[in-house]
Amino acid sequence: MHMKLKFTFILICLLAGLLCKAQIQFVGAQNKLPIPSLNIYNEKGTLIGFTDKTGVTQFLDNGVKKQKLPLAVTVQHISYENKTFSLVSLDDKQLYFLESRPQVLKEVTVTAKPKEVVVLKGYFRSLETFDHQYKYFSDGIVEFYIPLKKGKPKYRLIIVCL
């Protein structure tokens, strides 16, 4: 029993160490949401890391932890402005905010001619049988749209009663 208690205590300590690891997280300045797939480059332009779906930094295995601090990094994402940060520590929990890129779209006018179709409305009843016995039926109103030029006819069930 005493050995089991020691083992449990050691296991809890190890798991607590994993949960308390440093997190460098990037979020949007306006919406405070995590920024996934953010690329992180060192001052030489080499990719040294990225962010996961929670915006937390994942460094690549190229010796980032061994580099001299403070570490100048530039972050890049298609939806956010590029920004350079100076990381003074890789062990503390840190939160950085990025500004969204302005997305100004040109005005577009869309015009489309509606397709000419013939609309047929009708009533239907469908009887389902099994071994020559009626099991159930469904009925309702159906609309058929038949194009005047070319194309496949389409239909829509409006009311269905089972």
State the gist of this model:
By secondary structure, the chain is mainly β. About 10% of the residues lie in helices and about 45% in strands.
Description of the molecule:
There is one protein chain. By secondary structure, the protein is mainly beta. It folds into 2 domains: 22-98, Sandwich (Immunoglobulin-like); 117-161. 11% of the residues lie in helices and 46% in strands. It contains 1 helix and 10 strands; from the N terminus they run αββββββββββ. The protein has one helix spanning 2-19, and strands spanning 24-28, 39-42, 47-51, 57-59, 71-77, 80-87, 94-98, 117-130, 133-147, 154-161. A 5-stranded antiparallel β-sheet has the order 4-3-2-5-6, with no helix packed on it. It is elongated. The termini are far apart.
Question: Features of this protein?
Answer:
mainly beta; Immunoglobulin-like; five-stranded antiparallel β-sheet; elongated
**Relative strand content:** over 45%
Order of helices and strands: HEEEEEEEEEE
What is the radius of gyration?
31 Å
Q: Structural class, from helix and strand content?
A: mainly beta
Helix content: 10-25%
Instruction: Please give the largest β-sheet.
Output: 5 strands, antiparallel
Uncertain runs:
16-20
Morphology call: elongated
Helices and strands in order:
Blueprint: H1 2-19, E1 24-28, E2 39-42, E3 47-51, E4 57-59, E5 71-77, E6 80-87, E7 94-98, E8 117-130, E9 133-147, E10 154-161
Parallel strand pairs: 1-7
Antiparallel strand pairs: 2-3, 2-5, 3-4, 5-6, 8-9, 9-10
